[in-house]
Specification:
binds uracil; Uracil-DNA Glycosylase, subunit E; Type-4 uracil-DNA glycosylase
């Protein structure tokens, strides 16, 4: 018989899911990463943000978006009047993929098999949270969300209907904003990102 849905059950099931994810071997990335970095945020969030994969700091902390890109994201959300605590934040790939160069661990972009293997976890998260809006930050997240490669510049700015009535959006990754070399262009790109987040925030409030 089906167990009636009670808040306690939701939390128990969620913890079991996280536990299972912490032992994930669906792709080889678990071998070199410190730990699985699962998503974080309220399970009734109306807005889910998907990044690429944990970076160096996230891998060590076990939490998504806590390093430089996360700090930029925090500030952008604040400016967009979105409370990060109300948002579920996760990544398309849940283990850090890197190349060791001396003491440094250099980020490597995950490839299709890794994104596909990890899509299972994203589906688990989305099935439970059932957000109104899903935002892909950057090309890897967009690929995970849409199941195909897309160009950010051609895909951003308009809602994309997804399964279960979820509204998808694609925008840039905060790390891209950190890397724009020209200061004026960086400011313009950042302002555009904040504007997109603000519009999205209005759609979920
Ligand atoms: N970049 C991401 O895509 N995700 C993180 O969690 C951190 C940096």
């Amino acid at each position: 018989p089906k167990v009636p849905a009670r808040p306690g059950n939701v939390a128990v099931a969620w913890n079991a899911l996280r536990e299972e994810a912490s032992a994930c071997t669906r792709c080889p990335l678990y071998r070199d990463a410190t730990q699985t970095v699962f998503g974080e945020g309220p399970l009734d969030a109306r807005l889910v943000l998907v990044g690429e994969q944990p970076g160096d700091q996230e891998d060590l902390a076990g939490r998504p978006f806590v390093g430089p890109a996360g700090q930029l994201l925090d500030r952008a959300l604040e400016e967009a009047r979105i409370d990060r605590a109300s948002v579920y934040v996760t990544n398309a790939v849940k283990h850090f993929k890197y190349e060791q160069r001396g003491k440094r661990r250099i980020h490597q972009t995950p490839e299709t098999p890794e994104i596909q293997a990890c899509r299972w976890w994203l589906d688990q998260e989305l099935d439970r949270i059932r957000p109104r809006i899903l935002v892909a930050l950057g090309a890897t997240a967009a690929r995970a969300m849409l199941g195909k490669a897309v160009t950010i510049s051609r895909t951003r700015g308009a809602p994309i209907p997804l399964d279960n009535g979820v509204e998808g959006w694609v925008t840039v990754h905060p790390s891209f904003l950190l890397r724009v070399p020209d200061e004026a262009r960086k400011a313009a790109e950042r302002a555009r990102f904040v504007e997109e987040l603000r519009n999205i925030g209005e759609r979920v409030s």
